[in-house]
Q: What sequence folds into this?
């Protein structure tokens, strides 16, 4: 319930428990980072080395996020908006190769290893590593990433990291082995005092003392930040900030846009903010009566059922009362809700069993209106967005002119865009309304057969008689050796034809 949630958030025990959980996560990521670095030094195959380097960067990012969360002091406010889920799926980065590189198979033949890292608060996720070359036109990352505890003012940072995918990686010796030998020679306690930075949880200090080999070092290629305004629930295009140029060895010709689907689901739209029995007061034929109903506050409505089992059975509520800013609450052990109707406004009066229960319902209504107000979850409270478990299917390569293609929304004023034949093909597809893909076909009018019978045109009919030549071989009878059947005699009552 909403009132219970607010009391828990304001309690000091909750803050201590939250800090304890963050410290446990921090210790776990520190151990994972040490294991990832050991695996990085022990691997010999290039895929394993690059994956270990990717996991090392992800662990460092999570440690940095946990440390920032522990160092941030929580500010107590009167009313805290509800949290929500944010899902990111269908990550796609269009590439712009030169025509000579992509179509004629010329230019550099290097391969690049890429992965995405996503930050939202203290939650950090990464994608699988993909390898691309000049034959790839889009860098795609499948799957859905879900962030559980997002606030309305969330900032989702999406980063694209790149590394050269070399056939052979030269693993140079790192100072870590020398430092360990030095620490062991001085003893365990003396070595720790001499090299205290080796066991620290600080991400920057760890990378300084544990350098990543040059052949497995990722560089940040581009990034973007998404907020609540970009959560439209559909496949959209967003601008990228590119940090590298063509002189970098890990550079790729990015179009300058990121295509993805961002969905936000506030808790007030998916969970019950308040639930319990209320008595509805009604006046029927001049007589006052009350009806006990099980009411649920969720999604901007007060849904009323006869029993709570109807919710589990997915039965439609008896009636639903929209909760708007014009509602009015009374404290004389009754709750009055005014909602718009066809005739103007309609008032629903509910009573509670005690004054404390009434206070809980009033607080839940105020909090629910605050969560769905103009300054919080905005359009996400108008209609619940569908959150897919799987990544949305990739759009087809060729779409008609009327189709909704995200590439039509991409900026054509990119500073690093090259002229290519794809523009010519795209223009021809638009001019021919898609007929360019299947070949032009001129429209032919069907023949008008009615002119043969209305006498408007002369018709010449010739009969061709095939004569059997002397040299030709007569066609054999289909039935050979059978006796010919004689013709039947004429009728007796008719004279023979002469």
A:
């Amino acid at each position: 319930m909403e009132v219970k949630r607010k009391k828990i958030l304001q309690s000091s025990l909750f803050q201590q428990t939250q800090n304890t959980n963050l410290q446990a996560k921090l210790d776990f990521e520190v151990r994972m980072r040490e294991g990832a670095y050991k695996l990085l030094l022990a691997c010999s195959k290039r895929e394993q080395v690059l994956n270990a380097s990717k996991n090392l960067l992800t662990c460092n990012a999570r440690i940095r996020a946990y440390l920032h969360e522990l160092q941030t002091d929580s500010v107590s406010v009167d009313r805290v908006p509800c949290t929500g889920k944010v899902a990111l799926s269908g990550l796609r980065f269009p590439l712009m190769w030169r025509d000579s590189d992509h179509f004629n198979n010329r230019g550099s033949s290097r391969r690049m290893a890429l992965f995405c890292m996503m930050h939202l608060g203290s939650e950090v996720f990464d994608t699988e590593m993909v390898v691309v070359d000049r034959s790839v036109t889009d860098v795609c990352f499948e799957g859905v990433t879900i962030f559980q505890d997002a606030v309305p003012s969330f900032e989702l940072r999406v980063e694209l990291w790149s590394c050269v995918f070399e056939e052979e990686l030269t693993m140079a010796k790192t100072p870590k082995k020398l430092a360990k030998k030095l620490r062991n020679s001085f003893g365990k306690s003396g070595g720790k005092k001499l090299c205290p930075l080796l066991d620290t949880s600080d991400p920057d200090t760890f990378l300084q003392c544990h350098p990543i080999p040059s052949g497995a070092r990722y560089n940040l290629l581009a990034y973007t930040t998404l907020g609540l305004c970009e959560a439209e629930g559909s496949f959209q295009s967003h601008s990228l900030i590119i940090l590298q140029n063509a002189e970098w060895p890990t550079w790729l010709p990015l179009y300058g846009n990121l295509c993805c689907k961002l969905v936000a689901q506030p808790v007030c739209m998916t969970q019950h903010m308040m639930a319990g029995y209320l008595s509805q007061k009604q006046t029927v034929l001049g007589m006052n009566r009350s009806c006990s109903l099980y009411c649920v506050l969720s999604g901007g409505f007060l849904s009323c059922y006869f029993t709570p089992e109807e919710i589990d059975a997915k039965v439609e509520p008896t009636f639903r009362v929209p909760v708007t800013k014009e509602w009015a609450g009374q404290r004389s052990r009754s709750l009055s809700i005014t909602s718009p109707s066809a005739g103007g406004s309609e008032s629903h009066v509910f009573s509670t069993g005690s004054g404390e229960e009434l206070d809980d319902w009033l607080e839940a209504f105020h909090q629910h209106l605050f969560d769905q107000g103009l300054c919080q979850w905005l359009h996400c409270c108008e209609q619940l967005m569908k959150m897919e478990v799987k990544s949305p299917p990739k759009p087809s390569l060729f779409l008609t002119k009327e189709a909704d293609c995200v590439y039509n929304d991409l900026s054509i004023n990119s500073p690093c865009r090259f002229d290519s034949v794809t523009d010519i093909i795209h223009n021809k597809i638009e001019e021919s309304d898609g007929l360019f893909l299947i070949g032009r076909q001129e429209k032919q009018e069907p023949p008008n057969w009615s002119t043969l019978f209305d006498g408007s045109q002369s018709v010449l009919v010739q009969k061709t008689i095939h004569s059997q030549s002397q040299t030709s071989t007569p066609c054999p009878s289909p039935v050979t050796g059978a006796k010919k059947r004689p013709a039947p005699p004429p009728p007796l009552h008719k004279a023979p034809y002469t």
Summary: Residues 90 and 392 are 6 Å apart (CA to CA). The domain at 2-174+211-269 is CATH 2.60.40.150 (Immunoglobulin-like). Confidence is low (pLDDT under 50) at residues 170-188, 190-198, 396-405, 414-419.
